[in-house]
Specification:
335 residues, D-Maltodextrin-Binding Protein, domain 2, 12-stranded mixed β-sheet, 3-stranded mixed β-sheet, 12 helices, 15 strands, 22% strand, elongated
């Protein structure tokens, strides 16, 4: 499962920010070495928007929701088969630029440089926003500190804060152990770009392999903070998410200088919709099929009424549907 440093029941690897950022640039240069034209062997020119076979690449953060979308789509269109590959964000884009995949699910659109890459090959990928999600901060059930400010999150990520007592002088938990899902994940990129505004992450931060690993680690580690995609802990109709929620606590995050119950918010749909929860991302489906085939059909389904209902049920915010979202205040910070 893991990499370098053995910590007992699980292994972690330290995050090398320079390697993470450099990888994307180097990969982009490598992409240019590939020949022009779409060489995707996973699709056939005979498929349609509702039939055929399609392999897609998905940011592992969104495995729970995409699994459900595929299940419903295939149950409705019996002649369609969608095969997902769940990978880190870097690996997803790697496959996309190599023309081996027509459809990806990611947390950012293409950059101007990346669009130019496709335009030079006479390709014009279509970006479709399907949802807005948040990054969830989870802590061990024994941890009494469930509120935190954006300012302190940034200081933790950059190494200015290293102990729980720096957040709460009464805490006896010692050092803060921060874990991400994967060193090449969209979660790490968001932490660098959007939380730390490009400032280097602390070398003491660690990464595992999958979001589920983070939840297991936090459940067994009193002093840990895990940073994961919110749909792993937000879907109350999913028995897996309920199981995870029983293992950990989801922190409330405040934009104010001092976090209180009144100004701190958990990543519920309503708070994402109101933009009061601070760590929000857009989820995109990017289609480079270039014709009306199964990749486009599945994208249209996810962005349509049924697909957006699945998004809502998964606990994240639909991007293309007008929905009424309520939050039960008793769910936030239960005693």
């Amino acid at each position: 499962m893991a990499h370098s440093e053995d910590i007992g029941f699980l292994k972690k690897t330290k995050i090398n920010v320079h390697s993470f950022i450099g990888f994307s640039f180097i990969s982009f240069i490598v992409f240019g070495l590939y020949s022009c034209g779409n060489n995707n062997s996973s699709t056939s020119e005979t498929d349609t928007p509702t039939s055929g076979k399609e392999t897609i690449c998905v940011d592992e953060t969104f495995k729970p929701i995409i699994e459900e979308e595929i299940d419903v789509f295939e149950s409705e269109y019996k002649s369609a088969t969608i095969t997902p590959k769940y990978k880190t964000e870097n690996d997803v884009f790697n496959d996309f630029f190599k023309d081996s995949i027509d459809l990806i699910v990611v947390t950012r659109g293409l950059t101007a440089k990346e669009k130019k890459f496709f335009e030079d090959k006479k390709m014009f990928p279509i970006e479709t926003r399907i949802a807005f999600d948040g990054l969830a901060l989870v802590v061990n059930n024994k941890n009494i500190d469930t509120l935190i400010t954006v300012k302190d999150v940034k200081k933790i990520l950059t190494g200015e804060i290293t102990k729980w007592s720096q957040i709460n002088p009464k805490s006896k938990l010692g050092d803060i152990s921060v874990v991400f899902d994967n060193k090449n994940s969209s979660t790490v990129r968001y932490a660098v770009d959007s939380i730390c505004k490009g400032k280097e992450l602390s070398p003491s931060l660690s990464a595992l392999t999958y979001n589920a690993d983070v939840l297991d680690y936090v459940a067994k580690t009193d002093n840990a903070i895990g940073i994961i995609g919110v749909n792993w802990v937000s879907n109350k109709s999913d028995s897996t998410a309920l199981s995870f929620l029983s293992k950990v606590k989801v922190m409330g995050v405040s934009k104010a200088d001092v976090a209180t119950y009144e100004n701190s918010y958990q990543p519920f749909q309503a708070y994402i919709a109101q933009r009061v929860y601070p760590f929000i991302r857009t989820i995109y489906m990017i289609n480079n099929e270039g014709r009306s085939g199964l990749a486009g059909g599945f994208t249209g389904f996810v962005a349509g009424d049924k697909g957006q209902r699945i998004v809502k049920r998964a606990g994240i915010l639909p991007a293309t549907a007008n929905v009424v979202i309520k939050v039960n205040m008793n769910d936030q910070y239960p005693e």
